[in-house]
Fold this protein.
Amino acid sequence: MIGPQDLGGRSGFGPVRAEPDEPIFHSDWEARVLGLTLCAGALGHWSLDESRHARECLDPGFYLRANYYDIWLTALEGLLERHGEVSARERALGQALQAGKAQAQRLQAEAVAGVLARGGPVDRPPPAPPRFDIGTRVVMARFHGSGHTRLPSYAMGREGIIEAVRGCHVLPDKNAHGEGEGPAWLYSVVFTGEALWGARAETGTEVSLDAFEPYLTRA
Amino acid sequence: MHDHAHDNEMSSQEARVRALETILVEKGLVEPAAIDAIIETYAEKVGPQNGARVVARAWLDESFAQALREDATEAIASLGFHGRQAEHMVALWNGAGTHNLVVCTLCSCYPWAVLGLPPVWYKSPPYRARAVSEPRAVLRDFGVALPEDTRIRVWDSTAEIRYLVIPERPAGTDGLDEDALAALVTRESMIGTGLALPPGESP
Protein backbone atom coordinates (compact mmCIF):
# COMPACT_ATOMS: atom_id res chain seq x y z
CA MET A 1 0.00 0.00 0.00
CA ILE A 2 1.10 3.54 -0.69
CA GLY A 3 0.47 4.67 2.87
CA PRO A 4 2.14 7.17 5.17
CA GLN A 5 5.10 4.82 5.60
CA ASP A 6 5.99 5.13 1.93
CA LEU A 7 8.14 8.22 2.33
CA GLY A 8 10.92 7.90 -0.24
CA GLY A 9 11.15 10.94 -2.50
CA ARG A 10 8.46 13.01 -0.81
CA SER A 11 8.94 16.74 -0.27
CA GLY A 12 8.04 19.18 2.46
CA PHE A 13 9.51 17.58 5.57
CA GLY A 14 12.38 20.03 5.96
CA PRO A 15 15.98 19.32 6.94
CA VAL A 16 17.21 16.28 8.83
CA ARG A 17 17.73 17.33 12.43
CA ALA A 18 20.08 15.04 14.29
CA GLU A 19 20.07 15.48 18.06
CA PRO A 20 23.58 15.84 19.49
CA ASP A 21 24.38 13.14 22.06
CA GLU A 22 20.97 11.61 21.57
CA PRO A 23 20.03 9.24 24.41
CA ILE A 24 19.04 5.68 23.50
CA PHE A 25 15.58 6.32 24.97
CA HIS A 26 14.02 9.72 25.61
CA SER A 27 11.77 8.43 28.38
CA ASP A 28 11.06 5.25 30.26
CA TRP A 29 7.87 4.54 28.34
CA GLU A 30 9.80 4.31 25.06
CA ALA A 31 12.01 1.62 26.56
CA ARG A 32 8.94 -0.27 27.86
CA VAL A 33 7.37 -0.10 24.38
CA LEU A 34 10.48 -1.69 22.88
CA GLY A 35 10.37 -4.50 25.43
CA LEU A 36 6.61 -4.99 25.21
CA THR A 37 6.71 -5.10 21.41
CA LEU A 38 9.37 -7.80 21.40
CA CYS A 39 7.71 -9.78 24.20
CA ALA A 40 4.32 -9.60 22.50
CA GLY A 41 5.86 -10.60 19.17
CA ALA A 42 7.29 -13.69 20.84
CA LEU A 43 3.72 -14.88 21.58
CA GLY A 44 3.61 -15.96 17.94
CA HIS A 45 0.29 -14.43 16.92
CA TRP A 46 1.77 -12.31 14.14
CA SER A 47 4.82 -12.04 11.92
CA LEU A 48 7.22 -9.12 11.61
CA ASP A 49 5.52 -8.40 8.30
CA GLU A 50 2.07 -8.23 9.88
CA SER A 51 3.41 -5.85 12.54
CA ARG A 52 4.88 -3.58 9.84
CA HIS A 53 1.54 -3.60 8.05
CA ALA A 54 -0.25 -2.70 11.30
CA ARG A 55 2.02 0.36 11.60
CA GLU A 56 1.56 1.52 8.01
CA CYS A 57 -2.24 1.18 8.36
CA LEU A 58 -2.33 3.75 11.17
CA ASP A 59 -3.97 7.10 10.53
CA PRO A 60 -1.63 8.94 8.12
CA GLY A 61 -1.76 12.23 10.01
CA PHE A 62 -0.81 10.45 13.21
CA TYR A 63 1.91 8.39 11.52
CA LEU A 64 3.66 11.41 10.04
CA ARG A 65 3.75 13.35 13.32
CA ALA A 66 4.14 10.63 15.93
CA ASN A 67 7.07 9.64 18.05
CA TYR A 68 8.16 6.35 16.45
CA TYR A 69 7.64 4.43 19.70
CA ASP A 70 4.06 5.73 19.76
CA ILE A 71 3.65 4.25 16.27
CA TRP A 72 4.87 0.94 17.70
CA LEU A 73 2.61 1.24 20.75
CA THR A 74 -0.50 2.11 18.78
CA ALA A 75 0.10 -0.71 16.32
CA LEU A 76 0.76 -3.11 19.20
CA GLU A 77 -2.57 -2.21 20.82
CA GLY A 78 -4.26 -2.97 17.51
CA LEU A 79 -2.44 -6.28 16.99
CA LEU A 80 -3.28 -7.51 20.49
CA GLU A 81 -6.92 -6.61 19.93
CA ARG A 82 -7.07 -8.22 16.48
CA HIS A 83 -5.62 -11.46 17.83
CA GLY A 84 -7.99 -11.59 20.77
CA GLU A 85 -5.48 -11.01 23.54
CA VAL A 86 -6.29 -7.50 24.84
CA SER A 87 -9.61 -5.81 24.09
CA ALA A 88 -10.22 -2.08 23.84
CA ARG A 89 -12.38 -2.41 26.96
CA GLU A 90 -9.53 -3.98 28.90
CA ARG A 91 -7.23 -1.16 27.80
CA ALA A 92 -9.76 1.44 28.90
CA LEU A 93 -10.16 -0.25 32.29
CA GLY A 94 -6.44 -0.93 32.67
CA GLN A 95 -7.11 -4.46 33.84
CA ALA A 96 -7.46 -7.95 32.42
CA LEU A 97 -10.98 -9.34 32.07
CA GLN A 98 -9.92 -12.72 30.76
CA ALA A 99 -6.82 -14.88 30.76
CA GLY A 100 -4.23 -14.71 28.02
CA LYS A 101 -4.40 -17.26 25.21
CA ALA A 102 -0.71 -17.70 24.40
CA GLN A 103 0.63 -18.01 27.96
CA ALA A 104 2.72 -21.01 26.95
CA GLN A 105 4.69 -18.78 24.56
CA ARG A 106 5.52 -16.15 27.18
CA LEU A 107 9.10 -14.96 26.73
CA GLN A 108 11.05 -15.76 29.91
CA ALA A 109 13.72 -13.34 31.09
CA GLU A 110 16.36 -16.10 30.96
CA ALA A 111 15.51 -16.73 27.31
CA VAL A 112 15.87 -13.12 26.15
CA ALA A 113 19.59 -13.20 25.39
CA GLY A 114 19.25 -16.35 23.31
CA VAL A 115 16.20 -15.13 21.43
CA LEU A 116 17.84 -11.82 20.53
CA ALA A 117 21.11 -13.53 19.58
CA ARG A 118 19.31 -15.98 17.28
CA GLY A 119 17.07 -13.42 15.63
CA GLY A 120 14.69 -14.61 12.95
CA PRO A 121 16.40 -15.47 9.68
CA VAL A 122 14.02 -15.26 6.70
CA ASP A 123 16.02 -17.19 4.08
CA ARG A 124 14.19 -20.29 2.84
CA PRO A 125 14.86 -23.15 0.41
CA PRO A 126 14.08 -21.87 -3.10
CA PRO A 127 11.07 -23.38 -4.88
CA ALA A 128 12.70 -22.72 -8.28
CA PRO A 129 15.93 -21.24 -9.65
CA PRO A 130 16.14 -17.44 -9.87
CA ARG A 131 14.64 -16.00 -13.07
CA PHE A 132 17.04 -13.09 -13.37
CA ASP A 133 20.81 -12.91 -13.66
CA ILE A 134 23.04 -10.11 -12.51
CA GLY A 135 23.06 -7.39 -15.18
CA THR A 136 19.48 -8.03 -16.33
CA ARG A 137 17.42 -4.89 -16.95
CA VAL A 138 14.12 -5.07 -15.08
CA VAL A 139 11.03 -2.94 -14.59
CA MET A 140 9.40 -2.66 -11.17
CA ALA A 141 5.72 -3.52 -10.84
CA ARG A 142 3.02 -1.04 -9.83
CA PHE A 143 1.04 -2.17 -6.80
CA HIS A 144 -1.92 -0.20 -5.57
CA GLY A 145 -4.50 -1.22 -3.00
CA SER A 146 -4.49 -1.90 0.70
CA GLY A 147 -2.10 -4.86 0.92
CA HIS A 148 1.36 -4.89 2.41
CA THR A 149 4.31 -4.62 0.07
CA ARG A 150 7.96 -3.70 0.34
CA LEU A 151 8.00 -2.09 -3.08
CA PRO A 152 8.33 1.65 -2.47
CA SER A 153 6.18 3.80 -4.74
CA TYR A 154 9.11 5.91 -5.96
CA ALA A 155 10.42 2.84 -7.80
CA MET A 156 7.10 1.57 -9.21
CA GLY A 157 7.26 1.33 -13.00
CA ARG A 158 10.95 2.36 -13.04
CA GLU A 159 13.70 0.51 -14.86
CA GLY A 160 16.80 -0.70 -13.08
CA ILE A 161 19.51 -3.36 -13.26
CA ILE A 162 19.89 -6.49 -11.13
CA GLU A 163 23.17 -6.10 -9.30
CA ALA A 164 23.03 -8.94 -6.77
CA VAL A 165 21.00 -12.03 -5.99
CA ARG A 166 20.47 -12.01 -2.21
CA GLY A 167 18.88 -15.42 -1.71
CA CYS A 168 15.36 -16.76 -1.39
CA HIS A 169 13.42 -15.01 1.37
CA VAL A 170 9.96 -14.95 2.94
CA LEU A 171 7.68 -12.75 0.78
CA PRO A 172 6.25 -10.00 3.01
CA ASP A 173 3.35 -9.33 0.61
CA LYS A 174 1.90 -12.77 1.46
CA ASN A 175 3.26 -13.33 4.95
CA ALA A 176 1.82 -10.07 6.32
CA HIS A 177 -1.67 -11.36 5.53
CA GLY A 178 -1.32 -14.88 6.90
CA GLU A 179 -1.11 -16.32 3.38
CA GLY A 180 2.03 -18.33 4.06
CA GLU A 181 5.67 -17.43 3.62
CA GLY A 182 5.65 -17.79 -0.19
CA PRO A 183 9.46 -17.68 -0.43
CA ALA A 184 10.70 -15.66 -3.39
CA TRP A 185 14.09 -14.71 -4.79
CA LEU A 186 15.37 -11.40 -3.54
CA TYR A 187 17.52 -9.14 -5.71
CA SER A 188 19.33 -5.87 -5.25
CA VAL A 189 18.23 -3.62 -8.09
CA VAL A 190 20.09 -0.39 -8.87
CA PHE A 191 18.50 2.69 -10.44
CA THR A 192 20.11 5.85 -11.71
CA GLY A 193 18.98 9.06 -10.07
CA GLU A 194 17.57 10.16 -13.44
CA ALA A 195 15.45 6.99 -13.77
CA LEU A 196 13.81 7.74 -10.43
CA TRP A 197 13.74 11.53 -10.21
CA GLY A 198 14.08 12.81 -13.76
CA ALA A 199 16.18 15.72 -14.94
CA ARG A 200 16.44 17.32 -11.49
CA ALA A 201 18.13 14.31 -9.92
CA GLU A 202 21.38 15.13 -8.15
CA THR A 203 24.29 14.23 -10.43
CA GLY A 204 26.22 11.05 -9.82
CA THR A 205 23.64 9.47 -7.52
CA GLU A 206 22.15 5.99 -7.67
CA VAL A 207 19.70 4.13 -5.46
CA SER A 208 19.71 0.40 -4.77
CA LEU A 209 16.80 -1.41 -3.19
CA ASP A 210 15.97 -5.02 -2.43
CA ALA A 211 13.15 -6.34 -4.60
CA PHE A 212 11.40 -9.70 -4.56
CA GLU A 213 11.03 -11.56 -7.85
CA PRO A 214 7.23 -10.98 -8.08
CA TYR A 215 7.98 -7.24 -8.16
CA LEU A 216 10.02 -7.55 -11.35
CA THR A 217 9.59 -8.10 -15.08
CA ARG A 218 12.29 -8.14 -17.71
CA ALA A 219 12.68 -4.73 -19.37
CA MET B 1 15.15 9.37 31.21
CA HIS B 2 12.49 11.24 33.11
CA ASP B 3 10.94 10.03 36.29
CA HIS B 4 7.57 11.51 37.02
CA ALA B 5 6.57 11.43 40.65
CA HIS B 6 2.84 11.83 40.18
CA ASP B 7 0.43 9.95 38.00
CA ASN B 8 -1.24 13.16 36.89
CA GLU B 9 2.02 14.19 35.26
CA MET B 10 2.10 11.09 33.08
CA SER B 11 2.00 11.57 29.34
CA SER B 12 -0.78 9.73 27.58
CA GLN B 13 1.83 7.35 26.20
CA GLU B 14 3.15 6.60 29.67
CA ALA B 15 -0.36 5.84 30.87
CA ARG B 16 -1.13 3.64 27.88
CA VAL B 17 2.12 1.70 28.15
CA ARG B 18 1.65 1.20 31.86
CA ALA B 19 -1.91 -0.05 31.32
CA LEU B 20 -0.88 -2.39 28.53
CA GLU B 21 2.01 -3.86 30.49
CA THR B 22 -0.21 -4.33 33.56
CA ILE B 23 -2.84 -6.16 31.52
CA LEU B 24 -0.34 -8.36 29.70
CA VAL B 25 1.34 -9.32 32.96
CA GLU B 26 -2.04 -10.09 34.60
CA LYS B 27 -2.85 -12.29 31.63
CA GLY B 28 0.37 -14.22 31.98
CA LEU B 29 1.58 -13.11 28.55
CA VAL B 30 4.52 -10.91 29.49
CA GLU B 31 7.18 -11.16 32.16
CA PRO B 32 8.38 -7.72 33.33
CA ALA B 33 11.88 -9.10 33.85
CA ALA B 34 11.98 -10.06 30.18
CA ILE B 35 11.20 -6.46 29.24
CA ASP B 36 13.97 -5.32 31.57
CA ALA B 37 16.40 -7.76 29.94
CA ILE B 38 15.54 -6.49 26.45
CA ILE B 39 15.99 -2.87 27.52
CA GLU B 40 19.28 -3.65 29.21
CA THR B 41 20.54 -5.42 26.08
CA TYR B 42 20.04 -2.39 23.85
CA ALA B 43 20.85 0.24 26.47
CA GLU B 44 24.10 -1.33 27.61
CA LYS B 45 25.37 -4.22 25.51
CA VAL B 46 24.45 -3.83 21.86
CA GLY B 47 25.35 -0.56 20.17
CA PRO B 48 27.56 1.13 17.57
CA GLN B 49 30.67 0.03 19.47
CA ASN B 50 29.99 -3.40 17.92
CA GLY B 51 30.01 -2.05 14.37
CA ALA B 52 33.10 0.06 15.14
CA ARG B 53 34.89 -3.15 16.09
CA VAL B 54 33.92 -4.71 12.75
CA VAL B 55 35.20 -1.69 10.82
CA ALA B 56 38.47 -1.45 12.74
CA ARG B 57 39.11 -5.16 12.21
CA ALA B 58 38.38 -4.80 8.51
CA TRP B 59 40.88 -1.94 8.24
CA LEU B 60 43.59 -3.93 9.99
CA ASP B 61 43.09 -7.48 8.83
CA GLU B 62 42.83 -8.12 5.10
CA SER B 63 41.67 -11.70 5.57
CA PHE B 64 38.81 -10.46 7.77
CA ALA B 65 37.99 -7.79 5.18
CA GLN B 66 37.85 -10.49 2.52
CA ALA B 67 35.57 -12.63 4.70
CA LEU B 68 33.35 -9.58 5.21
CA ARG B 69 33.09 -9.14 1.43
CA GLU B 70 32.22 -12.78 0.90
CA ASP B 71 29.74 -13.33 3.73
CA ALA B 72 29.24 -10.35 6.00
CA THR B 73 26.76 -12.17 8.26
CA GLU B 74 29.31 -14.92 9.01
CA ALA B 75 32.26 -12.56 9.36
CA ILE B 76 30.39 -10.25 11.74
CA ALA B 77 29.11 -13.22 13.73
CA SER B 78 32.71 -14.40 14.11
CA LEU B 79 33.26 -11.30 16.29
CA GLY B 80 30.25 -12.24 18.42
CA PHE B 81 27.68 -9.91 16.85
CA HIS B 82 24.62 -11.61 15.42
CA GLY B 83 20.88 -12.04 15.79
CA ARG B 84 17.88 -9.80 15.67
CA GLN B 85 17.95 -7.27 12.82
CA ALA B 86 21.32 -8.52 11.58
CA GLU B 87 20.31 -11.94 10.27
CA HIS B 88 21.35 -11.11 6.69
CA MET B 89 24.20 -8.59 6.58
CA VAL B 90 25.94 -6.93 3.64
CA ALA B 91 28.98 -4.66 4.04
CA LEU B 92 29.29 -1.60 1.78
CA TRP B 93 32.77 -0.24 1.16
CA ASN B 94 33.38 3.45 0.74
CA GLY B 95 36.30 4.48 -1.41
CA ALA B 96 37.40 4.60 -5.04
CA GLY B 97 35.13 7.59 -5.63
CA THR B 98 31.99 6.00 -4.17
CA HIS B 99 30.16 6.90 -0.97
CA ASN B 100 27.41 4.65 0.41
CA LEU B 101 24.39 5.85 2.38
CA VAL B 102 21.82 3.58 4.05
CA VAL B 103 18.15 4.35 4.65
CA CYS B 104 14.88 2.54 5.21
CA THR B 105 12.25 4.60 3.41
CA LEU B 106 9.41 2.24 4.40
CA CYS B 107 10.00 1.91 8.16
CA SER B 108 13.05 1.80 10.40
CA CYS B 109 15.11 -1.21 9.29
CA TYR B 110 18.56 -0.92 10.84
CA PRO B 111 21.30 -3.45 11.70
CA TRP B 112 20.61 -3.68 15.44
CA ALA B 113 23.29 -6.24 16.28
CA VAL B 114 26.07 -3.95 15.02
CA LEU B 115 24.61 -0.45 15.52
CA GLY B 116 22.03 -0.87 18.28
CA LEU B 117 18.71 0.93 18.06
CA PRO B 118 18.33 3.58 15.36
CA PRO B 119 18.44 7.28 16.30
CA VAL B 120 15.24 9.33 15.99
CA TRP B 121 16.36 11.11 12.81
CA TYR B 122 16.85 7.77 11.04
CA LYS B 123 13.19 6.85 11.69
CA SER B 124 11.79 10.30 10.91
CA PRO B 125 10.16 11.57 7.69
CA PRO B 126 12.84 14.08 6.62
CA TYR B 127 15.59 11.47 6.36
CA ARG B 128 13.40 8.70 4.99
CA ALA B 129 11.92 11.03 2.36
CA ARG B 130 15.07 12.75 1.19
CA ALA B 131 17.92 10.22 1.50
CA VAL B 132 16.89 8.58 -1.78
CA SER B 133 16.00 11.69 -3.78
CA GLU B 134 18.59 14.21 -2.59
CA PRO B 135 21.36 12.38 -0.76
CA ARG B 136 23.91 15.14 -1.32
CA ALA B 137 21.61 17.67 0.33
CA VAL B 138 21.03 15.26 3.23
CA LEU B 139 24.78 14.84 3.64
CA ARG B 140 25.10 18.64 3.81
CA ASP B 141 22.53 18.58 6.66
CA PHE B 142 25.06 16.39 8.46
CA GLY B 143 27.92 18.74 7.59
CA VAL B 144 29.42 16.28 5.13
CA ALA B 145 30.58 17.81 1.85
CA LEU B 146 31.85 15.28 -0.67
CA PRO B 147 33.60 16.13 -3.94
CA GLU B 148 31.13 16.54 -6.83
CA ASP B 149 32.74 13.65 -8.67
CA THR B 150 32.22 11.25 -5.76
CA ARG B 151 29.36 8.97 -6.71
CA ILE B 152 26.68 8.52 -4.09
CA ARG B 153 25.07 5.11 -3.80
CA VAL B 154 21.99 5.01 -1.58
CA TRP B 155 20.80 1.65 -0.22
CA ASP B 156 17.11 1.46 0.68
CA SER B 157 16.63 -1.42 3.16
CA THR B 158 13.34 -2.62 1.70
CA ALA B 159 13.73 -6.30 2.68
CA GLU B 160 15.59 -8.14 5.46
CA ILE B 161 19.10 -7.42 4.21
CA ARG B 162 20.82 -5.09 6.66
CA TYR B 163 23.66 -2.88 5.50
CA LEU B 164 26.81 -1.74 7.30
CA VAL B 165 28.93 0.96 5.67
CA ILE B 166 32.68 0.46 5.99
CA PRO B 167 33.99 4.03 5.96
CA GLU B 168 37.36 4.92 4.49
CA ARG B 169 40.22 4.63 6.92
CA PRO B 170 41.34 8.16 7.81
CA ALA B 171 44.81 9.35 6.82
CA GLY B 172 47.44 9.39 9.52
CA THR B 173 46.23 6.26 11.27
CA ASP B 174 49.13 3.96 10.41
CA GLY B 175 50.29 2.15 13.49
CA LEU B 176 47.07 2.65 15.46
CA ASP B 177 45.77 -0.49 17.09
CA GLU B 178 42.24 -1.85 16.84
CA ASP B 179 40.95 -0.03 19.94
CA ALA B 180 42.34 3.30 18.75
CA LEU B 181 40.89 2.80 15.27
CA ALA B 182 37.48 1.74 16.61
CA ALA B 183 37.31 4.99 18.58
CA LEU B 184 37.36 6.90 15.25
CA VAL B 185 34.39 5.00 13.82
CA THR B 186 31.18 6.90 14.53
CA ARG B 187 27.67 5.55 14.20
CA GLU B 188 27.03 8.06 11.41
CA SER B 189 30.07 6.83 9.49
CA MET B 190 28.57 3.32 9.46
CA ILE B 191 25.20 4.61 8.16
CA GLY B 192 26.93 6.84 5.62
CA THR B 193 25.79 10.20 7.02
CA GLY B 194 29.29 10.82 8.35
CA LEU B 195 32.93 9.95 7.85
CA ALA B 196 35.36 8.28 10.20
CA LEU B 197 37.08 10.83 12.44
CA PRO B 198 40.65 11.96 11.87
CA PRO B 199 43.08 10.68 14.52
CA GLY B 200 43.08 12.78 17.65
CA GLU B 201 39.33 13.36 17.65
CA SER B 202 37.01 11.11 19.57
CA PRO B 203 33.29 10.72 19.02
